[in-house]
Structure formats: C-alpha cells, structure tokens
Amino acid sequence: MGEAWGLTLGEASELVRKRTLSPTDLVRSHLDRIAAVEPHLLAWARTLPEQALAEAERLEKLLEKGTHLGPLHGIPVGIKDIDYTAGVETTGGSRILAGFIPTFGATVVRRLRAAGAIVLGKTATTEFAYADPAPTRNPWNPGHTPGGSSSGSAAAIAAGMCLGAFGTQTVGSIVRPAAFCGVVGLKPTYGRVSRHGILPLAWSLDHPGPMAKTVRDAALLLEAVAGSDPDDPSAAHRPVPHYAGMLGNPLGGLTAGIPDRYFPERSGAAVRAAFQDALRVLEGLGMRVRQVQLPACFEAGVEAGRVVLHAEAAAFHRDRFRARPRDYGPKLAALIEAGLLVPAASYLRAQQVRSEAMAAMRRLLSEVDVVVTPAAPGPAPEGLDSTGDPVFNAPTSTFGLPALGVPMGFAPPGLPLGLQIMGSHFEEAMILRVGAAYEAATPWHARRPAV
Asked: Given 150, 173, 267, 424, which residue is catalytic?
C-alpha cells in the first residue's frame, strides 16, 4: 500500500471502510508527512494534532461497533483559515484577527465533521482571502507562487499533507491555486454550499468549495457539505445529487464550447499547446468540440464583478480599516480605499450589468453542455509577491457558474497546468462527469511533486 498519505481520498475511504486501514494510522501518517514537508512549504496556519488523533480514536471505536458514517469516515482534511472552527483560532491570514477564537463552526466544517472527516488544522490563506500573499510555497518549485487565496489548501493536498481541503473563490481562489499546484479544484454554483461562518471578501461573489487529488474525491467532499442552510439565506433549496455515483457516464453526444475570445488571446504558448491536446482528448472520448461566441456583454459583466468586489469588501472592512489601517496589507488596503469611493448608484448598476451577463451566459450554456478553457494564462509565476492572474476564473465567480479545475499537463520547467470546465448553474454533476472522464484518459493527476 505504501505510505497512507500517498493514497487518494477514495482509496483511503475504501480501506477505512474495510477496516484495512485505521483512522488513527491514517491521521498519524499525515501528521508525519506534515512534520517532514511543512517547514519547507508553510501550507498551514496551525495544525491540531492532538484533536485530530482524539477524533480518529473516536471514529475508530465507532467502526468497531459497526457504525460507518460514510465515505469521509476517518478522512483527514484541511480547512481554510477564513472558515470558523469552534474553539480554534481563525485569523483570516491577518493580524487584525489574531487571537480570535469562534464559538461555533462554519456550516462547511460542521457538515464535514458530521460526515466523519477529521480536521488536521487550518490551511494558510492570503490576507482576508484577497491578494496579499500567504507565506506558502509551491510544492513543485518553492520559488514560485502556489496561487491564492486558497494557497495552503492547494499546496497541502499536492504535497500529501491531507486528503482533501476546503477553499473559497471570490475571483479565482480555488481553480487557480489548484492549477498551479497540480490538483483538482471545484468551485460550485453560487448558493450550492453555505457561506455561514466564513469570513466574507465579497458576499455576493464568495463560493466555498473543495480541493482534492482527484475528481471523485472532490465529488465526495461536495456531497458532504452541499445543500440548503437556515443560517444562510443564499444557500439554495435544491436536492444534493449523488455526484460520485454519476462520474462513469460516457461523454458521447455531449458538446464542449470553446470561447471565441477573451481566453485565447491571454493564453501563453505552453497553455495553448496543452489546451489543444486536452481538446483532442475530449474529442477522443466522444465529445463534440466547437467554438462558441461569448455574449456581447461578457467583458462588461466581468468588469461589473470587479466593482462589486471593491464595494462589498470595503463595506465589510470599513470600520476595522478606519481603526487600524496600518495593520492591513497594501493590496487589501488599496482595494478597500477604492471600494469606499464607489457610489451606491455605481454598485447597483454593476449588479444590474452582472445580472444581464449571467442571463446571457445561461443562454449560451443551454446550447452546449460545458464550456472549456485553460484554468490560468500560464503556470505559476516565479516569485512570492503575487498569487498569479485570476483573469480566467473571474467570469465563473462573477456569474455564479460552477467550474472544475483538473490537471492538464506541465510547462517547462515542470510546473503544472490546469484545464477549466464550466457548466450551467447547479450542473456540478455535468462538469464532474466531463472532468472525471478527462482525468481517467490522461496521466497528469497521478503525478506528485518531489517534496
């Protein structure tokens, strides 16, 4: 079997269910892995080894009594440090919240624990999930960014420090770091997963979602946390499908749309080549691949999302920023200062333009099953002063569309690239189906960094 930390979530889940691998041994393996590689990568804001082992022992006793909580029983995960964890410090990567210990957990955290997942700790995030980088390094090359804002979650999974993790995406903070670190990232439809107990960046753009080693792993994590929530009015009252059970369906008869603009002109040479290879794989799987024309209001809609981001971030941080401006990082401070200057009429107009673009994208996605693009313009940039360009992810965040990022190959000198699969609202099953088929037909997801 090798080291347990090298398993996928699905593999470990099956071994735990069969009682071939105990939750305690699984957690110990990951804690040992953290001890070995964390000093080089800085993916964790804080770890909880004693709590994790105690929970593993509790879950082991349940198995001995014949109680199995499901596919996440005994599975070690990481939680982004903007998600409230009862009794555990949650700082959002900022000195502003140093020492803040929530009295309750985010809905995502409570549902994971109820499903049997074991929280190993809080993964590092950029400051309040914006652009001032976390200290985390990229496992494939520590001189390059891991992406952000879910920096620690992506790096921890890639380096084998947990079997799954949760991030959030307001612009590009799940799919982009997943691409840069060579893992799977799933940004669900807005409202598919509750935001209750998660520090907001911009509440009408924030999307919690899972990150994992494989598409099936991400599907299992999404199933555990999705659904309506009385504590979050924006959480959709829709049934949660059995996503993992729908992954094996063939792709014959499905159509993938390739945008006519915006993405091609921003893609680097390595990304363009890898993307063309990915399209050939999809065609080989039976999909029809054709160009689609993005709506005329597409770019205006994306720009409207920027206005919304500025205004809502400023509204959330206004009082703290006025009291402690020097304790904010320069990029977040600039965002807040700009947002404070946005007139109410401009914010409302931006929301109107955004809604029009969302409707136009719904119409486009009624003509094709998915829209496929690269997940980022290139591989992870060199240096740690930036988290990379979220330009390819901003549209799905702004329009609330589900997006799945899967490994798409490598660029010289060995940095991962990602494929982004977008779907209609609440069509996570479709993008997971396409992503799983592509993953099974390519070797990229099985490669791991040499750390």
From this structure: 173
